[in-house]
């Protein structure tokens, strides 16, 4: 690779040919503020916040789109550059809803941070504002265009990460807004509800639908037994909302905090993950032995489920019918647990703490309703969970580590913990399936080929003499080639894990929002890798690391379900799917 020599702020800098000024500056440890730029996703230069002065250039140039050249002299902090940036931000603010105190992104807003960094104290440009759209008709995502800065990060994320392009620029000039086609609701288009647009929005224009007060109301209802369950990926990120370093595992503090919020039982969805492996593993073996529809796709990512129902309905028979772990656990709480505890299921209120916005729509699926009640009553994202803890005045960082409640649903294995990382579901399934088929205790239990951040991972696995190919993918752009192979009948795989979000649940749309400085810059190990490491670290310290070895899961089958795939298990733990219409356009 050719090397280019340039100067930035009178410092000699070397950069690879083809780099932009922004990339060269970041590599040299020189900060240039950005707003619309998002590494590998968006670099339109539309916001004009990264303006720099280049010697002999007539105008200020956007650092994110200007390529480096030999002998170039760049000034990032000249008076001219700073004035240019200030004007850009002031113009954005002139058309922005500045109700910061009541905004969810208050103190974690990139526009707010820029305003502070640039010392903007007055609004020089006041006047008419673009007519705003506020819509919250979908179960998961709220859109408020009065806060939108037209950076297009959400547009490009949907297009490049999920390959959908649900969002785009509607209207022209001063009337321009970001919206689904025809300014429809997210509920009326083929949206995955994954929330990747939300975590990549720099402001509060896209947020999760808030359900915290619904949970507060349930906690204060004396007639309700309120049970909370936490997903594996939450422990790897919740601490970030309380100022702890990225990747800090807060399993014990999380359990302690939720107990102090007043939940009657505090459980871990990991128990449900172990149960999922029993059902999904049994389903895989049945398809392999009896000539069922292969390859089989995993089914625990609701964003992925929405995607395949909209985009590849002809492949629905390939989906496992197993419900996701928190839905299985909700069903068990309102049947098995209720029966053993003598509690009427109608009085039980189940709350799931999830890294995922799509889980909010999952609990509304009619296919997931058991008997006359829903499996899960409310979903709070990791961010909402943090807000609940703060609302209750709990000092999270000073809490002691506590265990989850141990009764009936309290044990979980290391295999369940890694569900939160891309490849974790596959590895957990392989541990149980291989141990069952080989007929001996699995040692070692690790399938390291399943790990890492690659968009697609594959491996050949020996199951008692039978070799199968498995694949793991996350994000729909990465998944699409695999789906096309299955559609064409050319896929070599037997089992494919699909996660809706890049990296899996550790990077779910409901997780703490990471600053673009971290996403764009260098911090050694990336934030997704740090969260992923936290899960594998917990897996290693667990005494039991194979789902089928969980004694409470064994008791569940012995005392209640009978065996995996039984009639009762099918009724309570399995679901169905149906093709979905891409757009709903209603005529007046």
Count of folded domains = 3
Count all strands and give the number.
20
- The side-by-side strand order for the widest beta sheet comes to 2-1-5-3-4
- The radius of gyration over CA amounts to 25 Å
Structural class comes to alpha/beta
CATH architecture of the largest domain, please? 3-Layer(aba) Sandwich
For the record, give the distance between the C-alpha atoms at the N and C termini, rounded to a whole number: 59 Å
Helix content: 25-40%
CATH topology of the largest domain: Rossmann fold
Count of DSSP helices? Answer: 19
* Gross morphology: globular
Under CATH at level 1, the class of the largest domain stands as: Alpha Beta
Give the biggest sheet: 5 strands, mixed
What's this, in brief?
The protein is an alpha/beta fold. 33% of the residues lie in helices and 15% in strands.
Mind explaining what this structure looks like?
This protein is an alpha/beta fold and 588 residues long. It has 3 domains: 92 residues, Ubiquitin-like (UB roll) (Roll); 79 residues, Alpha-Beta Plaits (2-Layer Sandwich); 361 residues, Rossmann fold, CATH 3.40.50.1780. 33% of the residues lie in helices and 15% in strands. The chain has 19 helices and 20 strands. A 5-stranded mixed beta sheet has the order 2-1-5-3-4, sandwiched between helices. It has a 4-stranded parallel beta sheet with strand order 12-11-14-17, sandwiched between helices. Strand 11, helix 7 and strand 12 form a beta-alpha-beta unit. The radius of gyration is 25 Å and the shape is globular. The N and C termini lie far apart (59 Å). 49% of the residues are buried.
